[in-house]
Amino acid sequence: MDSFTALADPTRRRIVEMLAQGALSAGEIGERFTVSAPAISQHLKTLREAGLVKVTVAGQRRIYTLDPEGIDAFDDWVRRVRAFWPDRLAALEAALLKPEPGEEA
């Protein structure tokens, strides 16, 4: 699953937002939701497969963090798309400010 599909789910977006604040165990993540632990586990698996989070095992605990490479790839895409708009918006502004035929400039 790609990162866009993974982030289409609001629960997974919320998990990513939580992990942006720092590492959390699967249990700590699960405590913040009303869905079952197996459901949270599936969400974490999806995020891991999409390359957005990493997991490390510490004894019985699984600690999740954001995967910088996956987040950077997502951010790179957003930057490329965002770069499209300034020229288009400038052209739109120029067209809107251009006087109509017969109007004074």
Automatic annotation (TrEMBL):
UniProt keywords (A-Z) are: DNA-binding, Transcription, Transcription regulation
Q: Which GO terms describe its molecular function?
A: DNA binding; DNA-binding transcription factor activity
Q: Mind telling me which SUPFAM superfamilies this protein's record contains? A: Winged helix' DNA-binding domain (SSF46785)
Under PROSITE patterns, the record lists:
HTH_ARSR_2 (PS50987)
Pfam families reported in the protein's UniProt record = HTH_5
Please state every residue range assigned to the domain named HTH arsR-type: 1-86
Protein origin, superkingdom: Bacteria
Q: What protein name is recorded for this chain?
A: ArsR family transcriptional regulator
Q: Which organism is it from?
A: Bosea vaviloviae
